[in-house]
Amino acid sequence: MTRDCNRLKFLSAFFFFPIRSFLARLGIRYDISSIANAYYQEDFDRIPAGEKAVVLPHCLIGEECKARFSKAEGILCMKCKNCRCGEIRILCEEKGWQFYISPSTNFTKRLVQRKQIRAAVGGACDFEIDKGVRSTPITLKGVRLKKKKVIPQVILTTRYDCLHNDIDWDLLKRIILKGARGAVEWSGGRCAEP
Ligand code: SF4
User: Fold this and answer.
1) d(CA 109, CA 149)
2) What is residue 189's predicted lDDT score, i.e. its pLDDT?
């Protein structure tokens, strides 16, 4: 029943997405990432740890970050404690997840092609989510990135800022430790409008 409810919400949210500005003027607003997270959570949790990844955007790294950049792996966090990315990297290593910090959305798409990633949790601002929904095929089986489908969980960053951003780190840790179901409970996902 919950799965059917989440599926209905998911389909409605993406169907009405092109007219969301009009709906907002009527007082109807919804968070598309929470709805998508709720729908994908069971599939996300079924993917083995080794094929799951945390892919963080570069806007979350510390100002004094000395990490090198690799064309293949992105920003190579050294776990220096100048920001919380290092803590997440350590947790990923403990739990057998992959961990990346990506400089751009296009880099993330290429990363997914190269690596064995079937599910990914990442952070994104409203602007990137909006752009992603418009430009990327999003299906009931996952987000299609060229030849691959990835089951996503998205955590909204606290602001639209490419340099100094933040995220709900506790929520991210909870997803790694307890699975994606925790993320939906945290965001209060229930069967309601649209
Ligand atoms: S913890 Fe990692 S990402 Fe953060 S500042 Fe240090 S090296 Fe850079």
Assistant:
1) 11
2) 45
Closest ligand 1 atom number to CA of residue 62: 5
- Ligand 1 pocket test, pick from 70, 79, 163 with the greatest ligand atom count within 8 Å of Cβ, gives 79
* Atom 4, ligand 1: residue with shortest CA distance: 83
Task: Please list every protein residue whose CB sits less than 6 Å from any atom of ligand 1.
Answer: 61-62, 65, 67, 77-83, 85-86
* CA 96/CA 47 separation, integer angstroms: 12
CB 59 within 8 A of CB 164: yes
For residue 138, the surrounding DSSP H or E stretch is strand 138-139
Residue 30 in 3-state DSSP? coil
* Per-residue pLDDT band at 66 (split at 50, 70, 90): very high
Q: Is 60 in contact with 85 (CB distance < 8 Å)?
A: yes
Region 72-97: mean pLDDT is 95
